[in-house]
What does this fold into?
Amino acid sequence: MSIKVIAITGSHRKNSNTELALQIMSKRLAKIGVETEIIALANKKIEHCRACDNCKKTGNCLIDDELVEIMEKMTIAQGIILACPVYSFNITPLMQDLIARGNRFFHILAKSAIEDNSNNPGFTYKNIPSSVLKGKVGAAITTARRAGGGMALWKLNNFMLVNEMYVVGSCYENTIFGNERGSIVKDIEGMNNLYKLTDNFGTLLKKLFG
Ligand SMILES: Cc1cc2nc3c(=O)[nH]c(=O)nc-3n(C[C@H](O)[C@H](O)[C@H](O)COP(=O)(O)O)c2cc1C
It folds into this structure.
């Protein structure tokens, strides 16, 4: 079976450092036969979760925007990479939208679509359904000028962990430093961490899905 990875960048600018990091990962993964689709959230029509709880009550979301297609692609892939620049010691608003809506989507909405939902018992926090992302392989990276990479990274990793994914690491924290476009390649230690992360990610993908 061919192995497919969806790699998402939460940068608000195109041709960004974070996208560059994903291109480097993609090229390395291609060498072992793993195909990566890079998706930039920038300039996509993406709304915030409205907290209407319609998904919990009916299994439907009232928002029909470009994030739905991205999340659907994530449900089909074997591997997911979440990559985000640090904005104010945090992930970006775009990535936060994916995480807020994604937790509902993967636990309730995608599950309802895949499984017969005609007898939907409704959602309760005592009985959160397993995520459709369960068992997929995950990796996260952040890019930063200097500070807050670890906090942002924790959010990306935690999202994948609560969706029961197998999240891989590297030999050190996966924050790559750089500010001007392209400058992350000068962070030698960050690049080495990125290569190791990519190799660990590829190894687990091959073991599970190769
Ligand atoms: C609104 C905004 C807030 C930022 N806040 C931080 C920050 O808290 N810490 C930091 O190290 N870098 C911060 N940066 C710098 C970016 O993380 C850095 O330039 C990164 O390389 C941008 O990645 P990108 O090219 O993928 O967008 C900020 C940048 C912007 C635009």
Notes: The chain has a mean pLDDT of 94. The chain has one domain: 3-209. Strands lie at 3-9, 34-40, 79-85, 137-144, 166-167, 175-177.
